[in-house]
Write a structure and sequence with these properties.
The protein is mainly beta. Helices cover about 5% and strands about 50% of the residues. The longest helix has 8 residues.
Amino acid sequence: MTLIGAGLGSLVSASLALPATAQDVQVLDEITVTATRAARPIEQVPTTVQVVERAEIEQQLRFSSNPAVALSKLVPGYSASTETISNASESYRGRGLLVMIDGVPLNTPLRDVSRIASLIDLNAVERIEVASGASSLYGAGATGGTVNFITRRPVDGRPQVTVSTALRAFTSNAANSLAPEVSVSMLGGHNGFDYSIVATGRSAGRTYDGAGRELPSDAMLGQGGGDRYWNGNLFARLGYNFDPARRFEVSATMIRLEQNPQYNTLYSGTYARPDTSSLYSGFSVMERTSSFQARYTDQSFLLGALSVQSFYNETNKRFNYSNYSFPYNSQVYYSGNPRSPTSPANQTVLHSTRYGLTATIDTPLDFLWRGTRLTWGADVIRDHTSQHLVDGREVFTPLGQTTLAGFAQLQVPVTDRLTVRAGLRYERFALTVQDYTRPDIYAGLSGTSVFLLPAIPVLGGSFTYSAPTYNLGATFKLTDTIDLYGGFSQGYALPDVGAFTRRAGSTLAYACPLTRPTCLPAGTAVSYGSIGPRAQLVNNYEVGIRGRVGAFRGSLAGFISTSNDGVTFDPLSNTMSQQKEMIYGVEFQGEMQVTSALTLGTNMTYREGRYDSNKDGRLDSWLPNNRIANPFRGMIYGSYRFDNDVTVRIEGVGFTGRNQPINLAGTIYPIKSGFTMNASVAAPVFGGQAFLAVNNLFDTLYENPTATSVRNLTSYAWGRTVTAGFRRTF
């Protein structure tokens, strides 16, 4: 089993994962970890860590193929899933999440478009490692945490082929909501060579809430929905072991998706719903993401264990077309006709490429102090990102960025019980911002007051951002099976540059009446220097206890996260700002092996945050719902395995509402509480395993808190679904 941790933001592997069956139980002294990109015992990792192992992944695949849904149930601190192809407003501890596959970040840091964690193929994943708290070890972006999807590893010998099939439907309308899925994997190896290949295809029909009403295809304005799509994933790896110490491998991950909405979404009224009187006229929603990587490892390198990795990511995303609708979609690219103000091209496409080289060396320093190790290395990364309307007009300044970083992490076992870790990383961003002309925007100030934000030149330039980040932590073995841990770590990020430049000149200072669209003085322009975001440095403070007592094991942790340059988005005014903020919380996980057949467990989290809404230095308001929608979230579950290997699992998932003022004016967007139950049964059949799973067992009607928070517009969660499937390995 594995888990992730950080002292600068370290990735670790360990075993606080909660298993699906009694057979998965392991004791803590059997755990190995890879902290700071190098192997470490779990008792030396001074941070909250968790993993979702393969057995639990297969359990969650019975309920949903969406990784974000699994994370929202299993990982304390992760927000509720939107249940769509988008991860908009999904957060970890109220902040950003760095998403990786085998250590390669898949985020598009210059334009955070929130559509990757939901599209990774769980059939290709061996385990999901999660690190809590701010981190910079794998580069910028992990202000709330890091999630690393570790792909399937082959076993030496004859090919192992697994075929998985599933069919899901909503009980409200089974015929129109059918969603089939098929996945085929082949793993094997011989004479030092090995390979892993996983191909998955799925499609989805309509989706429905707990009242049997059809859900919209774009409840979150441009993000995409959970209906009417086809999705294909391909993962392939080829590796060769030169000897037991040296290995080389290459791998590729490809994601393809296309959604074809039938109707536009109606945003007026009390909740988002399909507008059956308005057929969708835009292009399909599209995803074309590819990631390639090569890795060489040498455990016998002169200076210690060496790992060198290169990668190339290419991302193409097309978003939904949406019409003007005040107040939820109060700014659209202008057609030139005030009677039909939305441009036919009011649909954007993002293109991003990212490539880089990383090197890590784990050096023993026993000559200084027995057991001391230094993990050190460097990263070089290059990003190019642009976004344009479907007619080719740019919507923000094309961006290029070169990142240079070096890091070092020292670990010293002071005594047999006490281990101290400390480290630093220095990161430098060289950002190139090209000139562009922001297109005309039709904007509403109220239901009757509208104006034009005329096309305006945005002037770029070259800019640099740099900062060191530090960490210091310690673990103490209270007993042979219980550890105390605590520490301080920092994360660094340059917030969503594209989103800031896309909104250049979108204030009343640059507005014109529709009758006089050229009212701005000749030569009016906006410079990036006046609107560019400040780099965000996040401080994370954390203490916790974890371990095992008899048949019980678990962890309890508390944290405080602060930043002087946090990022807040106001969907109604379409503005972004940076200000001082603080987030705090408590997380708990526990599991009891009641008998060899019965397992009971729970995970719970409380988090809340405040920020300086008027920038006077005081934390005067609560963070908006799109940062924290539910202060408390939790899950309880039970699994039972019968003597004939039939297994049953019951889950209860609940969250509290939120009713906090988000500014000094006392503005409140209430979020309602909710609770739902899920159940599954699996049995050996014809040499494989058949299963039946039910989500939202009682077909409860409740708000999806994360989707609702994106635009402060109620979006309902999925109603009851039934999934039947079969898996067999040959």
